[in-house]
Amino acid sequence: LSSSSAASDVYKRQVAVSLLSGVASFKGGNIGGANTEFGMRLGASSVAMTGSVVKGTEAGIDIYPGSSLTLSGSQVSGTGANGIGIHMYNGDLKANSGTVISGTVMGISVTQARPTAGPGNPSIELDNSHVIGQTGAAIVVARPFGTSDSTTIVLKNGSCLLYTSDAADEEDSV
């Protein structure tokens, strides 16, 4: 493939909701599904979701620099063979009120964007929420690009990071 055809293939990928430089609120909706590669893609946007379900075979949600996502009582899933619940390129993620983020491989993947992509380091705050990696880690943070790069992860109020065998053990012990 030439670089121009490879680049155009990226834009042909199936995305249920793509938000660029916007603000949105979702309540009680279902986004994506079995034939959607990415349930949602956020670029320099702010989104709040309450009681919603987002699914994509590659990733439930992609978060790009300058974006913030707040999930309350929602479910986000990456359902394909290499599924990731949420893939973050910088940005801020807050999940609360029993939100579940899961992927067939990992729950959350964090990649710090190059400094030219925009300001800010990735930040994750989980409050009474669960992140599940079914065959891999719940959260994977890639190596930073610079010496001042960092990723902040805060877990509070009973939040859990699990992989499938942990979830099975937890269910057995209840």
Secondary-structure element string:
HEEEEEEEEEEEEEEEEEEH
Mean pLDDT: 87
Residue share in helices? 10-25%
Low-confidence stretches: 1-8
* Structure class: mainly beta
Distance between the termini: 53 Å
**Strand neighbour order, sheet with most strands:** 1-4-7-10-13-16
Counted by DSSP, the helix tally is 2
Radius of gyration: 16 Å
Main sheet overview = 6 strands, parallel
The share of residues in extended strands comes to: over 45%
Q: What does the overall shape look like?
A: globular
Q: Please count the beta strands (DSSP E, at least 2 residues each).
A: 18
Would you write up a description of this structure?
This protein has 174 residues and is mainly beta. Helices cover 11% and strands 49% of the residues. The chain contains 2 helices and 18 strands. The strands form 3 sheets. A 6-stranded parallel β-sheet has the order 1-4-7-10-13-16, with no helix packed on it. It has a 6-stranded parallel β-sheet with strand order 2-5-8-11-14-17, with no helix packed on it. The longest helix is centred in the last third of the chain and has 10 residues, at 164-173. The model is unreliable at 1-8 (pLDDT under 50).
Summary keywords:
11% helix; 2 helices; mainly beta; disordered N terminus; six-stranded parallel sheet; 174 residues
What is the fold's blueprint, element by element?
Blueprint: H1 3-11, E1 15-20, E2 23-27, E3 30-32, E4 38-43, E5 46-50, E6 53-56, E7 59-63, E8 68-72, E9 75-78, E10 84-89, E11 92-96, E12 100-103, E13 106-111, E14 123-127, E15 130-133, E16 139-141, E17 152-156, E18 160-163, H2 164-173
Parallel strand pairs: 1-4, 2-5, 3-6, 4-7, 5-8, 6-9, 7-10, 8-11, 9-12, 10-13, 11-14, 12-15, 13-16, 14-17, 15-18
